[in-house]
User: What shape does this take?
Amino acid sequence: MKKVFTLNSRSGICLFFLVFILFLSEFVLIGCPGISNNKEDDEIDKSTIMIGIVMPDRSGVHVKNGNFLKTAVEDLGYKVRLELPDGGTQEEQNVLIKELIDAGAKVLIIDYVYGDSIQELLSEAKAKEIKVIAYDRLIRNTVNYDYYVTFNNYAVGQMQGEAIIEGLNLTESSGSKQITLFAGDLADTNATFFFNGAMNKLQPYITDNKLTVVGSSNISDVAIPSWNPANVKDRMDSIFTTGNTIKAVLAPNDYVAQYIIQNYWSTFAQSPIITGQDAEFISAKLIKEGKQYMTVFKDHVDLAADVAIMVDKIIEGKSISGISGLSLATGDLAEMGNTGVGKVPTFIQAPSVIKQDNLKDLIDADWFTTEQDNELNQ
Assistant: This one.
């Protein structure tokens, strides 16, 4: 009788497993469809991925910040195109954004000018799955972008207010001291946060009559169109024409502080407390000379490095979290990402105060050129 092998027999079981093992080994050698067995094949070739950076204009601070971003992203291995509009209009910036979209940028970092005309381009970027990071300035009236990265701008204003309180010794002195207030361009949402942060600190002293505001304390009255320092002239002329004794000026940034110092210094009855922001080199010299009381240092080198890490996480499909220098704005600070039609996830970095006693911090941060460092050290 012919012997028949069945799976119940020992030899049949052995044969079954032999065939199974041979099949499995072949499967492993060939590899699963869509999954690489070579780790190197899974690695992203960053040198082929283009990241686009667009700044608002060619002014010194924007050229500097753009180059910080470019260097930080390039250091991670990506190909980078940095674009700077000549005239600083939204229309010019739009042309450059469109060029980057058409060139195949995977991520766009945009420090935008002002204007709703950018919205069509953001919609196009979203449709093409291009991630967009608004850098330093919120893009308004749209939520068709992914992240907003900036500094804690409310804290910037608080630092300016605290400096005035300290400089005038308001906690100890008696009587009332005159102050005049300025705010930035209200088209820039940062300006409102700067001003409100400062007033958070100053208002109690205004209420207690330790500070007397010369002019208005309404932000819409004291805003400076286009952040142009020359737009403070009429108000400053009026203030001094009426014989006021101004002891402090809330200047929202260094350019405004510089303009007031250069054009009105001799008109002040005594050295006033003048605030600033951005740690411009000229203002650093004015602080050293005792003319500008302080500036707020927003370290764009560190911020650029954090944005580069964010870009890396985006490309690798990872969660945007755990970046040591950045924190997600929550609570009231989440309003920093309110575009007017919705909120964009906002990540913020802490600023710091610079006065005479810590000017060296700017040198240590490699904020200036070697020549500028030497000039400050003289």
